[in-house]
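Let us work through a complete example step by step.
Step 1: write down the sequence.
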Amino acid sequence: MDLACGANNAAMRRGYIDGPFGQLHVREAGRGVPLLLLHQSPLNSGMFAAASAELSANGFHVIAPDTPGYGQSDAPENPVQISAYADCLHSVLNHFGYETACILGHHTGAVIAANFAARFGDTVRHLVLNGVPLLSEEERAFFATFKFSPLDIKADGSHLQAAWEQRLKASPGWTNLAAMHRYTVDMLANPERYFWAFDAVFAHDLATDLAAITCPTTLLTNTGEDLFQATKRTHAQFPHFGFESLEGGTHDIVDEQPEAWANKLDRILASSHP
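Step 2: predict the structure and record it as tokens.
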């Protein structure tokens, strides 16, 4: 079925397709080269809304699913591994009739995309890993200080402040108040499962996936994001991958610099245009 136009975002149509865990909510825009955009946790495909018009104008059919259990996609009954999230991409490609696509994954989405490309490389025209969580022990210790567990909802509403403070801690140097608010609300709206994908990332052997990738691959980052050093370190370990970077920003770079981010992605994927 065609996706219906969404009232809240004129640039992206919104709808549902069938997936392994029920319905997958998908945003799409434009026509042209298929480009799957996989979001960070605990957000949803709306994180790409600011860049979608630029990407669609540049000749891409932008397709951005909500990871199962996030946004408006149905959730698995229990926590799942990264490979289960990645397998959902088959449902997306099949629904739109594509045998191959470019894929960009951001943070958690990068791990999902890398796993998919490692197992189904012939399906991926060009892989872009935007912020790669190939973490050092020091970085793992830092992320371990976050509370990845069900939100403890308090009668006095103090859990709302706690969620805001956790987002502040995760976003040093933030500049976009609207994005900070929207993404804190995304976490609050998913109190029982918002951390499932984080747990899956920390348990996953990303290095093995990266070593198995044979499709054209580019690492993308920005100097102000929390995974900048990890992404540089990934490039040092896998120098045959391309490497591109934007200046400044945080892990909310798509909201902070949507035009620059979209144009950078367009240049990376230029060879994938017909």
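Step 3: interpret the result. Residues 1-10 have pLDDT under 50 and may be disordered.
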